[in-house]
Specification:
Layout: H1 17-37, E1 60-66, H2 72-75, H3 80-84, H4 92-95, E2 119-122, E3 127-130, H5 134-137, E4 143-150, H6 156-165, H7 175-183, E5 193-197, E6 223-225, H8 243-263, H9 267-290, H10 297-303, H11 313-325, E7 330-335, H12 344-368, E8 375-380, E9 384-389, E10 400-403, E11 407-412, E12 420-422, E13 424-425, E14 432-434, E15 437-438, H13 439-449, E16 459-461, E17 464-466
Parallel strand pairs: 1-7, 1-8, 4-12, 4-15, 5-6, 5-7
Antiparallel strand pairs: 2-3, 4-11, 8-11, 9-10, 13-14, 16-17
Protein backbone atom coordinates (compact mmCIF):
# COMPACT_ATOMS: atom_id res chain seq x y z
CA UNK A 1 0.00 0.00 0.00
CA UNK A 2 1.35 3.38 -0.96
CA UNK A 3 2.35 5.61 1.91
CA UNK A 4 0.04 8.68 1.98
CA UNK A 5 3.07 10.83 2.60
CA UNK A 6 4.39 9.76 -0.79
CA UNK A 7 1.58 11.48 -2.72
CA UNK A 8 3.16 13.48 -5.54
CA UNK A 9 6.38 11.46 -5.56
CA UNK A 10 6.92 8.59 -8.01
CA UNK A 11 9.75 7.11 -5.99
CA UNK A 12 9.97 7.07 -2.15
CA UNK A 13 13.67 7.86 -2.51
CA UNK A 14 12.64 11.28 -3.80
CA UNK A 15 11.18 12.13 -0.40
CA UNK A 16 13.46 14.41 1.55
CA UNK A 17 12.60 16.76 4.38
CA UNK A 18 13.15 19.70 2.04
CA UNK A 19 10.94 18.26 -0.73
CA UNK A 20 8.20 17.32 1.69
CA UNK A 21 8.12 20.72 3.40
CA UNK A 22 8.31 22.46 0.04
CA UNK A 23 5.33 20.50 -1.27
CA UNK A 24 3.39 20.81 1.97
CA UNK A 25 4.08 24.55 2.26
CA UNK A 26 3.09 25.13 -1.34
CA UNK A 27 -0.16 23.32 -0.67
CA UNK A 28 -0.99 25.55 2.29
CA UNK A 29 0.19 28.58 0.34
CA UNK A 30 -2.02 27.58 -2.56
CA UNK A 31 -5.05 27.40 -0.26
CA UNK A 32 -4.30 30.85 1.13
CA UNK A 33 -3.55 32.28 -2.29
CA UNK A 34 -6.72 30.82 -3.74
CA UNK A 35 -8.72 32.44 -0.96
CA UNK A 36 -7.13 35.81 -1.68
CA UNK A 37 -6.98 35.68 -5.46
CA UNK A 38 -9.81 33.42 -6.55
CA UNK A 39 -12.50 35.73 -7.89
CA UNK A 40 -15.13 33.22 -6.77
CA UNK A 41 -14.30 34.07 -3.17
CA UNK A 42 -14.80 37.79 -3.70
CA UNK A 43 -16.13 39.35 -6.86
CA UNK A 44 -18.20 36.45 -8.18
CA UNK A 45 -20.05 35.97 -4.90
CA UNK A 46 -21.20 39.57 -5.23
CA UNK A 47 -22.34 39.09 -8.81
CA UNK A 48 -19.23 40.61 -10.41
CA UNK A 49 -17.31 38.90 -13.23
CA UNK A 50 -14.32 36.79 -12.29
CA UNK A 51 -11.21 38.76 -11.42
CA UNK A 52 -12.89 42.12 -10.87
CA UNK A 53 -13.16 44.10 -7.65
CA UNK A 54 -16.48 45.73 -8.56
CA UNK A 55 -18.95 45.82 -11.42
CA UNK A 56 -17.10 46.70 -14.65
CA UNK A 57 -18.35 49.05 -17.33
CA UNK A 58 -16.12 47.52 -20.03
CA UNK A 59 -15.26 43.92 -20.89
CA UNK A 60 -12.51 44.63 -23.38
CA UNK A 61 -10.21 47.38 -24.71
CA UNK A 62 -9.21 48.31 -28.25
CA UNK A 63 -6.30 50.74 -27.99
CA UNK A 64 -5.49 52.61 -31.21
CA UNK A 65 -1.98 53.69 -30.28
CA UNK A 66 -0.65 56.46 -32.54
CA UNK A 67 3.10 56.08 -32.14
CA UNK A 68 5.26 59.15 -32.63
CA UNK A 69 3.26 61.84 -30.85
CA UNK A 70 0.31 63.28 -32.82
CA UNK A 71 0.09 67.07 -32.82
CA UNK A 72 -2.81 67.95 -30.53
CA UNK A 73 -2.51 71.57 -31.67
CA UNK A 74 -3.39 70.61 -35.25
CA UNK A 75 -6.06 68.05 -34.39
CA UNK A 76 -8.00 68.86 -31.23
CA UNK A 77 -6.56 71.65 -29.07
CA UNK A 78 -7.43 74.83 -30.98
CA UNK A 79 -5.38 77.87 -29.97
CA UNK A 80 -6.30 81.07 -31.91
CA UNK A 81 -3.57 82.98 -30.07
CA UNK A 82 -0.91 80.87 -31.78
CA UNK A 83 -2.28 81.94 -35.15
CA UNK A 84 -2.44 85.57 -34.03
CA UNK A 85 1.19 85.46 -32.85
CA UNK A 86 2.52 83.12 -35.55
CA UNK A 87 6.27 83.65 -35.93
CA UNK A 88 6.69 85.54 -32.66
CA UNK A 89 8.97 84.23 -29.93
CA UNK A 90 7.63 81.80 -27.31
CA UNK A 91 7.33 83.96 -24.16
CA UNK A 92 9.74 83.04 -21.36
CA UNK A 93 6.83 83.33 -18.94
CA UNK A 94 5.07 80.49 -20.77
CA UNK A 95 8.03 78.16 -21.12
CA UNK A 96 9.20 79.02 -17.59
CA UNK A 97 12.56 77.31 -18.11
CA UNK A 98 11.04 73.91 -18.75
CA UNK A 99 13.14 71.19 -20.33
CA UNK A 100 13.47 70.96 -24.12
CA UNK A 101 14.67 68.02 -26.18
CA UNK A 102 18.19 67.91 -27.57
CA UNK A 103 16.73 68.63 -31.00
CA UNK A 104 15.57 72.16 -30.21
CA UNK A 105 17.43 73.18 -27.04
CA UNK A 106 20.16 74.86 -29.10
CA UNK A 107 17.83 76.81 -31.39
CA UNK A 108 18.51 80.53 -31.26
CA UNK A 109 14.77 81.17 -31.59
CA UNK A 110 11.56 79.33 -30.68
CA UNK A 111 8.95 80.94 -32.96
CA UNK A 112 5.30 80.17 -32.26
CA UNK A 113 3.56 78.13 -34.96
CA UNK A 114 -0.16 78.51 -35.46
CA UNK A 115 -2.09 75.69 -37.06
CA UNK A 116 -2.87 76.03 -40.80
CA UNK A 117 -5.95 73.83 -40.38
CA UNK A 118 -9.50 74.96 -39.74
CA UNK A 119 -11.19 74.13 -36.45
CA UNK A 120 -14.91 73.89 -35.81
CA UNK A 121 -17.16 72.76 -33.01
CA UNK A 122 -19.15 69.62 -33.70
CA UNK A 123 -22.23 67.90 -32.34
CA UNK A 124 -24.35 69.02 -29.43
CA UNK A 125 -21.25 68.64 -27.23
CA UNK A 126 -19.41 71.34 -29.20
CA UNK A 127 -16.20 69.29 -29.36
CA UNK A 128 -13.46 71.16 -31.22
CA UNK A 129 -11.90 69.10 -34.03
CA UNK A 130 -9.86 70.23 -37.03
CA UNK A 131 -10.80 69.62 -40.65
CA UNK A 132 -8.09 66.94 -40.79
CA UNK A 133 -10.60 64.57 -39.21
CA UNK A 134 -13.95 64.94 -40.98
CA UNK A 135 -15.07 61.41 -40.05
CA UNK A 136 -14.27 61.87 -36.37
CA UNK A 137 -16.21 65.13 -36.37
CA UNK A 138 -19.31 63.12 -37.26
CA UNK A 139 -19.15 61.08 -34.03
CA UNK A 140 -18.13 63.93 -31.72
CA UNK A 141 -20.98 63.18 -29.33
CA UNK A 142 -19.71 59.62 -28.83
CA UNK A 143 -16.26 60.80 -27.76
CA UNK A 144 -14.71 61.62 -24.41
CA UNK A 145 -11.67 63.90 -24.83
CA UNK A 146 -8.89 64.30 -22.29
CA UNK A 147 -6.99 67.44 -23.33
CA UNK A 148 -4.79 67.56 -20.25
CA UNK A 149 -2.71 64.40 -20.50
CA UNK A 150 0.90 64.75 -19.38
CA UNK A 151 3.99 62.61 -18.80
CA UNK A 152 7.62 62.97 -17.72
CA UNK A 153 8.99 61.20 -20.80
CA UNK A 154 10.29 63.53 -23.49
CA UNK A 155 11.69 61.02 -26.00
CA UNK A 156 9.99 58.22 -27.91
CA UNK A 157 11.46 55.10 -26.31
CA UNK A 158 10.78 56.14 -22.72
CA UNK A 159 7.50 57.78 -23.79
CA UNK A 160 6.00 54.70 -25.43
CA UNK A 161 7.30 52.51 -22.61
CA UNK A 162 5.68 54.83 -20.08
CA UNK A 163 2.31 54.73 -21.84
CA UNK A 164 2.42 50.95 -22.10
CA UNK A 165 3.84 50.00 -18.68
CA UNK A 166 3.61 52.98 -16.33
CA UNK A 167 7.41 53.29 -16.23
CA UNK A 168 9.98 54.86 -18.53
CA UNK A 169 12.31 51.91 -17.97
CA UNK A 170 11.92 48.66 -19.93
CA UNK A 171 11.12 45.45 -18.10
CA UNK A 172 7.70 46.17 -16.58
CA UNK A 173 4.51 44.38 -17.72
CA UNK A 174 2.37 46.20 -20.27
CA UNK A 175 -1.30 47.13 -19.84
CA UNK A 176 -2.53 44.13 -21.78
CA UNK A 177 -0.35 41.82 -19.73
CA UNK A 178 -1.70 43.21 -16.47
CA UNK A 179 -5.25 42.67 -17.72
CA UNK A 180 -4.44 39.14 -18.83
CA UNK A 181 -2.95 38.47 -15.41
CA UNK A 182 -5.85 40.04 -13.53
CA UNK A 183 -8.86 39.04 -15.62
CA UNK A 184 -7.74 36.06 -17.67
CA UNK A 185 -9.16 35.15 -21.07
CA UNK A 186 -12.70 35.24 -22.42
CA UNK A 187 -11.83 32.71 -25.15
CA UNK A 188 -9.49 29.82 -24.41
CA UNK A 189 -8.80 29.40 -28.12
CA UNK A 190 -7.35 32.89 -28.60
CA UNK A 191 -4.83 34.97 -26.63
CA UNK A 192 -6.25 37.44 -24.16
CA UNK A 193 -3.84 40.09 -25.54
CA UNK A 194 -3.30 40.62 -29.28
CA UNK A 195 -1.10 43.22 -31.00
CA UNK A 196 -1.50 44.51 -34.57
CA UNK A 197 1.04 46.79 -36.26
CA UNK A 198 0.57 48.79 -39.45
CA UNK A 199 2.62 47.15 -42.18
CA UNK A 200 5.17 49.42 -43.82
CA UNK A 201 4.49 52.37 -41.52
CA UNK A 202 7.59 54.52 -41.10
CA UNK A 203 8.65 56.04 -37.82
CA UNK A 204 10.20 54.99 -34.56
CA UNK A 205 10.89 51.24 -34.33
CA UNK A 206 8.41 49.13 -32.39
CA UNK A 207 10.06 46.56 -30.15
CA UNK A 208 8.36 43.53 -28.62
CA UNK A 209 8.97 45.01 -25.18
CA UNK A 210 6.06 47.36 -25.92
CA UNK A 211 3.72 44.36 -25.61
CA UNK A 212 5.80 42.15 -23.31
CA UNK A 213 4.77 40.70 -19.97
CA UNK A 214 7.89 41.85 -18.12
CA UNK A 215 8.23 39.92 -14.88
CA UNK A 216 4.75 38.39 -15.18
CA UNK A 217 4.56 34.80 -16.48
CA UNK A 218 5.21 34.57 -20.22
CA UNK A 219 1.66 33.42 -20.92
CA UNK A 220 0.62 37.08 -20.50
CA UNK A 221 2.77 38.34 -23.38
CA UNK A 222 0.95 40.12 -26.17
CA UNK A 223 0.73 37.93 -29.26
CA UNK A 224 1.52 39.83 -32.42
CA UNK A 225 -0.68 38.97 -35.41
CA UNK A 226 1.09 39.67 -38.70
CA UNK A 227 -0.47 40.41 -42.07
CA UNK A 228 1.58 37.71 -43.82
CA UNK A 229 0.42 34.17 -44.62
CA UNK A 230 1.56 33.15 -41.14
CA UNK A 231 -0.36 35.46 -38.81
CA UNK A 232 1.60 34.07 -35.86
CA UNK A 233 5.19 32.98 -36.44
CA UNK A 234 6.08 29.29 -35.98
CA UNK A 235 2.42 28.38 -35.46
CA UNK A 236 1.94 26.12 -38.48
CA UNK A 237 3.18 22.55 -38.49
CA UNK A 238 6.34 21.78 -40.50
CA UNK A 239 5.96 19.77 -43.68
CA UNK A 240 5.24 16.14 -42.90
CA UNK A 241 3.79 16.81 -39.45
CA UNK A 242 0.05 16.21 -39.12
CA UNK A 243 -2.25 17.82 -36.59
CA UNK A 244 -2.75 14.44 -34.91
CA UNK A 245 1.00 14.02 -34.72
CA UNK A 246 1.40 17.46 -33.15
CA UNK A 247 -1.31 16.60 -30.62
CA UNK A 248 0.45 13.38 -29.66
CA UNK A 249 3.78 15.22 -29.30
CA UNK A 250 2.26 17.82 -26.99
CA UNK A 251 0.58 15.12 -24.90
CA UNK A 252 3.88 13.26 -24.44
CA UNK A 253 5.70 16.48 -23.58
CA UNK A 254 3.08 17.26 -20.98
CA UNK A 255 3.53 13.82 -19.42
CA UNK A 256 7.26 14.48 -19.10
CA UNK A 257 6.68 17.93 -17.66
CA UNK A 258 4.12 16.63 -15.18
CA UNK A 259 6.56 13.92 -14.08
CA UNK A 260 9.23 16.57 -13.52
CA UNK A 261 6.87 18.86 -11.63
CA UNK A 262 5.88 16.08 -9.24
CA UNK A 263 9.50 16.04 -8.20
CA UNK A 264 10.14 19.77 -8.22
CA UNK A 265 7.49 22.39 -8.84
CA UNK A 266 8.63 24.65 -11.69
CA UNK A 267 6.51 27.59 -12.90
CA UNK A 268 8.56 27.72 -16.11
CA UNK A 269 7.47 24.20 -17.01
CA UNK A 270 3.86 25.02 -16.15
CA UNK A 271 4.05 28.02 -18.47
CA UNK A 272 5.54 25.89 -21.26
CA UNK A 273 2.67 23.43 -21.03
CA UNK A 274 0.16 26.28 -21.27
CA UNK A 275 2.01 27.79 -24.23
CA UNK A 276 2.09 24.48 -26.12
CA UNK A 277 -1.63 24.01 -25.55
CA UNK A 278 -2.44 27.56 -26.62
CA UNK A 279 -0.35 27.22 -29.78
CA UNK A 280 -2.21 24.04 -30.69
CA UNK A 281 -5.59 25.72 -30.27
CA UNK A 282 -4.41 28.78 -32.20
CA UNK A 283 -3.69 26.61 -35.23
CA UNK A 284 -7.45 26.32 -35.71
CA UNK A 285 -8.70 29.63 -34.30
CA UNK A 286 -6.26 32.11 -35.92
CA UNK A 287 -7.05 31.25 -39.56
CA UNK A 288 -10.74 31.56 -38.75
CA UNK A 289 -10.57 34.98 -37.10
CA UNK A 290 -8.16 36.44 -39.69
CA UNK A 291 -10.20 35.25 -42.69
CA UNK A 292 -11.98 38.40 -43.91
CA UNK A 293 -13.68 36.77 -46.88
CA UNK A 294 -17.05 36.76 -45.14
CA UNK A 295 -17.13 40.52 -44.52
CA UNK A 296 -19.78 42.39 -46.50
CA UNK A 297 -19.28 45.09 -49.10
CA UNK A 298 -21.05 47.48 -46.72
CA UNK A 299 -18.39 46.78 -44.10
CA UNK A 300 -15.56 47.51 -46.53
CA UNK A 301 -17.30 50.70 -47.57
CA UNK A 302 -17.53 51.69 -43.92
CA UNK A 303 -13.83 51.08 -43.18
CA UNK A 304 -12.56 52.27 -46.57
CA UNK A 305 -10.79 50.59 -49.46
CA UNK A 306 -7.57 50.24 -47.44
CA UNK A 307 -9.37 47.63 -45.33
CA UNK A 308 -9.03 45.20 -48.25
CA UNK A 309 -5.23 45.32 -47.93
CA UNK A 310 -3.90 43.20 -45.04
CA UNK A 311 -1.68 45.08 -42.63
CA UNK A 312 -3.08 48.56 -43.24
CA UNK A 313 -4.45 50.49 -40.30
CA UNK A 314 -7.96 50.11 -41.74
CA UNK A 315 -7.59 46.33 -42.10
CA UNK A 316 -6.27 46.14 -38.56
CA UNK A 317 -9.26 48.10 -37.25
CA UNK A 318 -11.59 45.64 -38.95
CA UNK A 319 -9.59 42.71 -37.56
CA UNK A 320 -9.75 44.32 -34.11
CA UNK A 321 -13.54 44.24 -34.27
CA UNK A 322 -13.43 40.55 -35.24
CA UNK A 323 -11.04 39.79 -32.36
CA UNK A 324 -13.28 41.69 -29.95
CA UNK A 325 -16.26 39.63 -31.11
CA UNK A 326 -14.29 36.48 -30.38
CA UNK A 327 -13.56 37.53 -26.81
CA UNK A 328 -10.01 38.89 -26.96
CA UNK A 329 -9.60 41.05 -23.85
CA UNK A 330 -7.01 43.63 -24.97
CA UNK A 331 -6.35 44.50 -28.61
CA UNK A 332 -3.69 47.07 -29.37
CA UNK A 333 -3.02 48.61 -32.77
CA UNK A 334 0.32 50.38 -33.24
CA UNK A 335 0.16 52.99 -35.99
CA UNK A 336 3.58 54.64 -36.44
CA UNK A 337 4.68 57.77 -38.25
CA UNK A 338 3.26 60.71 -36.26
CA UNK A 339 6.68 62.21 -35.48
CA UNK A 340 6.37 65.69 -37.02
CA UNK A 341 9.76 67.31 -36.52
CA UNK A 342 9.64 68.75 -40.02
CA UNK A 343 7.17 69.07 -42.89
CA UNK A 344 4.37 68.61 -40.37
CA UNK A 345 1.45 69.90 -42.47
CA UNK A 346 2.06 67.32 -45.18
CA UNK A 347 2.90 64.50 -42.78
CA UNK A 348 -0.14 64.91 -40.55
CA UNK A 349 -2.45 65.03 -43.57
CA UNK A 350 -1.13 61.64 -44.64
CA UNK A 351 -1.54 60.13 -41.17
CA UNK A 352 -5.10 61.35 -40.69
CA UNK A 353 -6.02 60.15 -44.18
CA UNK A 354 -4.81 56.68 -43.17
CA UNK A 355 -6.52 56.60 -39.79
CA UNK A 356 -9.56 58.89 -39.56
CA UNK A 357 -12.14 56.87 -41.45
CA UNK A 358 -11.10 53.50 -40.03
CA UNK A 359 -11.06 54.72 -36.42
CA UNK A 360 -14.58 56.04 -36.77
CA UNK A 361 -15.71 52.94 -38.69
CA UNK A 362 -14.61 50.84 -35.72
CA UNK A 363 -16.76 52.94 -33.38
CA UNK A 364 -19.78 52.76 -35.69
CA UNK A 365 -19.31 49.05 -36.32
CA UNK A 366 -19.12 48.24 -32.61
CA UNK A 367 -22.11 50.46 -31.92
CA UNK A 368 -24.24 48.79 -34.60
CA UNK A 369 -23.48 45.38 -33.07
CA UNK A 370 -24.31 46.47 -29.53
CA UNK A 371 -20.66 46.12 -28.47
CA UNK A 372 -19.58 49.73 -27.95
CA UNK A 373 -21.22 49.97 -24.56
CA UNK A 374 -18.87 47.34 -23.12
CA UNK A 375 -15.85 47.94 -25.39
CA UNK A 376 -13.50 50.78 -24.47
CA UNK A 377 -11.88 52.32 -27.57
CA UNK A 378 -8.83 54.51 -26.87
CA UNK A 379 -6.93 56.75 -29.32
CA UNK A 380 -3.68 58.56 -28.48
CA UNK A 381 0.11 58.64 -28.54
CA UNK A 382 2.99 58.87 -26.08
CA UNK A 383 3.09 62.69 -25.89
CA UNK A 384 2.13 65.79 -27.89
CA UNK A 385 3.92 68.41 -29.98
CA UNK A 386 5.30 71.84 -29.16
CA UNK A 387 3.56 75.14 -29.94
CA UNK A 388 6.80 76.46 -31.41
CA UNK A 389 8.56 75.50 -34.62
CA UNK A 390 11.47 73.12 -34.57
CA UNK A 391 13.96 73.99 -37.28
CA UNK A 392 13.31 76.46 -40.07
CA UNK A 393 9.86 78.00 -40.44
CA UNK A 394 8.58 79.08 -43.85
CA UNK A 395 5.28 80.53 -44.96
CA UNK A 396 3.75 77.10 -45.61
CA UNK A 397 5.90 74.72 -43.65
CA UNK A 398 7.14 74.04 -40.12
CA UNK A 399 7.83 71.24 -37.66
CA UNK A 400 6.99 70.64 -34.01
CA UNK A 401 9.17 69.01 -31.36
CA UNK A 402 8.11 66.57 -28.61
CA UNK A 403 5.93 68.04 -25.88
CA UNK A 404 5.21 65.88 -22.82
CA UNK A 405 3.55 68.60 -20.71
CA UNK A 406 0.19 68.52 -22.47
CA UNK A 407 -1.42 66.31 -25.09
CA UNK A 408 -4.81 64.89 -26.04
CA UNK A 409 -6.30 61.42 -25.86
CA UNK A 410 -9.86 60.43 -26.72
CA UNK A 411 -11.96 57.46 -25.67
CA UNK A 412 -15.33 56.05 -26.69
CA UNK A 413 -17.72 53.47 -25.27
CA UNK A 414 -16.87 51.21 -22.34
CA UNK A 415 -18.37 53.38 -19.63
CA UNK A 416 -16.81 56.77 -20.42
CA UNK A 417 -18.90 59.91 -20.62
CA UNK A 418 -19.85 60.62 -24.26
CA UNK A 419 -19.78 64.16 -25.59
CA UNK A 420 -17.46 65.34 -22.83
CA UNK A 421 -14.13 67.19 -22.81
CA UNK A 422 -11.92 67.02 -19.73
CA UNK A 423 -9.03 69.35 -18.96
CA UNK A 424 -7.74 72.54 -20.52
CA UNK A 425 -4.40 74.03 -21.56
CA UNK A 426 -3.36 77.68 -21.54
CA UNK A 427 -3.99 79.98 -24.50
CA UNK A 428 -0.62 78.98 -25.96
CA UNK A 429 -1.31 75.25 -25.62
CA UNK A 430 1.88 74.81 -23.61
CA UNK A 431 0.85 74.24 -19.99
CA UNK A 432 -2.19 72.61 -18.39
CA UNK A 433 -4.36 75.05 -16.46
CA UNK A 434 -7.29 72.78 -15.52
CA UNK A 435 -7.71 69.12 -14.49
CA UNK A 436 -4.33 67.57 -15.33
CA UNK A 437 -4.35 63.82 -16.04
CA UNK A 438 -1.07 61.97 -15.63
CA UNK A 439 -0.35 58.68 -17.39
CA UNK A 440 -0.79 56.92 -14.01
CA UNK A 441 -4.24 58.52 -13.64
CA UNK A 442 -5.14 57.37 -17.13
CA UNK A 443 -4.11 53.80 -16.31
CA UNK A 444 -6.01 53.86 -13.02
CA UNK A 445 -9.13 55.02 -14.86
CA UNK A 446 -8.78 52.40 -17.58
CA UNK A 447 -8.51 49.64 -14.96
CA UNK A 448 -11.47 51.08 -13.07
CA UNK A 449 -13.64 50.86 -16.17
CA UNK A 450 -12.77 47.16 -16.33
CA UNK A 451 -13.79 46.63 -12.71
CA UNK A 452 -10.29 46.67 -11.23
CA UNK A 453 -8.98 48.70 -8.29
CA UNK A 454 -5.54 49.70 -9.58
CA UNK A 455 -4.11 49.57 -6.05
CA UNK A 456 -5.09 45.92 -5.67
CA UNK A 457 -3.86 44.51 -8.98
CA UNK A 458 -0.32 43.67 -7.90
CA UNK A 459 2.46 41.16 -8.48
CA UNK A 460 5.35 40.50 -6.12
CA UNK A 461 8.73 40.72 -7.82
CA UNK A 462 12.17 41.02 -6.23
CA UNK A 463 10.72 41.59 -2.80
CA UNK A 464 8.16 44.29 -3.55
CA UNK A 465 4.62 44.43 -4.89
CA UNK A 466 4.43 46.10 -8.30
CA UNK A 467 1.39 47.45 -10.09
CA UNK A 468 0.65 49.19 -13.40
CA UNK A 469 0.31 52.57 -11.67
CA UNK A 470 3.41 51.96 -9.49
CA UNK A 471 2.74 53.99 -6.30
CA UNK A 472 0.76 56.73 -8.03
CA UNK A 473 -2.49 57.37 -9.86
CA UNK A 474 -6.09 58.19 -9.14
CA UNK A 475 -9.29 57.46 -11.04
CA UNK A 476 -10.51 60.43 -13.09
CA UNK A 477 -14.13 60.14 -12.00
CA UNK A 478 -15.26 63.07 -14.16
CA UNK A 479 -14.84 61.01 -17.35
CA UNK A 480 -16.97 58.11 -16.09
CA UNK A 481 -20.51 57.84 -17.48
Amino acid sequence: MKNPLCTGFEDPKDITRRNFLNTFAMGLGGIALADMMNPLSAATEQGFPMGTHFAPKAKRVIYLFQSGGPSQLDLFDHKPRLNAEHGKELPDSVRNGQRLTGMSVNQASLPLAGSPFEFKQHGSSGATISDLMPHLSGVADDLCFIKSMHTEAINHGPGVTMMQTGSQFPGRPTMGSWLSHGLGSMNENLPSYVVLTTKGAKGQPLGSRYWGSGFLPGQHDGVRFRSDKDAVLYLNNPDGISRDGRRATIDHLEELHQYQMKKHSDPVLENQIQQYEMAFRLQASVPEVTDMSGESEATYKLYGEDARTPGTFAANCLLARRLAEKGVRFIQLFHSGWDGHSDLPKGIKNKTKQSDQASVALIKDLKSRGMLEDTLVVWGGEFGRTNYCQGKMTKDNFGRDHHPRSFTTWMAGGGVKPGYTHGRTDEYGYNIVQDPVHVHDFHATLLHLLGIDHKRLTFKHQGRHFRLTDVHGHVVKEVLA
